[in-house]
Amino acid sequence: AIETVSGGMHHDGVIAFGGCDKNMPGCLMAFARLDVPAVFVYGGSILPGCVDGADVDIITIFEAVGRRQAGDLSDAQVATIERDACPGAGSCGGMYTANTMACAIEAMGLALPGDASTPAVSAGKERLAFLAGRAITGLIARRQGARTFITRRSLENAYATALALGGSSNIILHLAAIAREAGIPWDYTDCDRLERRVPWLADLKPGGRFSMHDLQRVGGTPAVLRGLLDAGIIHGDVPTVTGATLAENLAAVPSVWARPQDVVRPLDRPLYPSGHLVILRGNLAPEGAVAKTAGLKRRAITGPARVFDGEDACAAAVAARRIVAGDVVVIRGCGPRGGPGMPEMLAVTAALVGQGLAEAVGLITDGRFSGGTHGLVVGHLGPEAVCGGPIAFVRDGDVITIDADRRVLSLAVDEAELARRRAGWVAPEVTLRGVLGKFARLARSAADGATTAC
Predict the structure, then answer these.
(1) For the chain, what percent of residues have pLDDT higher than 70?
(2) In principle, which of 121, 259, 372, 383 could form an S-S bond with 389, CB 3.0–4.6 Å?
(3) Distance from C-alpha of 370 to C-alpha of 25, rounded to nearest angstrom
(4) What is the dihedral of CA 209, 213, 217, 223, to 10 degrees?
């Protein structure tokens, strides 16, 4: 939509305001296609709600549903959480996908310093929106198109920042899509390389305790970026929309570790010594898959498959308490083409957490997850089911292993049996019309960012 309107109107420059998971990478994909001067402005994060003296947010609501199914909450208690979890404007308050992408975009240099962590309801956000107008005029005068700022080094900054902050698994999908639109080589090997050297440092939800509001109170994204820069984790020489480099923008900013605080751990005491987003490979995912391990004590499971075609069937089984400890849930038909559009499994994963099964069961899907998802979950399996990927041929009771430490996702079925199951398989016909029908026919795999083929 942005590309079409701005291209059709021959805009000299573009300021895009984003405020939720998918429109934010969509803005940057449009920037890359247009390659005109561009500035991103984040709508900002919501403030936390409060129930019984504890901070709550939208994920608390989803998990409350699971707790109600388990009999731990009454209808009245769930209703109280629903009323109070979202007290005003802004994107979901943990290090979920919107905040992850905001931090990544700031680290790339396409947003003004502090844009990611400044709350939606604040004078600071109004000021940043005003300053974006000044920034775009400077970019137009300097004739700096958006691809000036979308480079391999800025993509590395984006992903390293997301890893340090415990960000959403969707960052992998979205960076791949942005890179593809900008014509930059970027794939799972880049994610692997960075994940092995960047520790998980921020104790932020969903894997930790704090919200984006708490991060802002200890210096916000500029303080975090300064700390990562001092540690050699990100590149300071990348250009930014201010006209200065990232290092120059941060020169007068104190590091997040300059004063005592509990939100971002020091480098010698990380929450985990390497990243929390792990690329798994094996006979179930020849193209790879993405595991999110933030906050997990248990990082591996082997168990019988419980197979569902689509999220709704799985959600019904979870609500009926038919998923038990030791199961490995399989949700298929939810990939880029199968969805179409790659839906997220938040309702299912949050209900499992609410039922106390977060680490007692595994879950794999060719779809993806909300940034609020946590548990022993693996998404983005490729090839997806509707393209004849191995996940299409898993049956109830097959033994599946998820092992984040060994980076393995495997199905204990030999190749001869899989070949027998594949025999006669025909790809499902696409019957949708319009935009979704076109997407279902043209979408690439999750490993390619689920971008279209043209």
Answers:
(1) 100
(2) 383
(3) 15
(4) 90
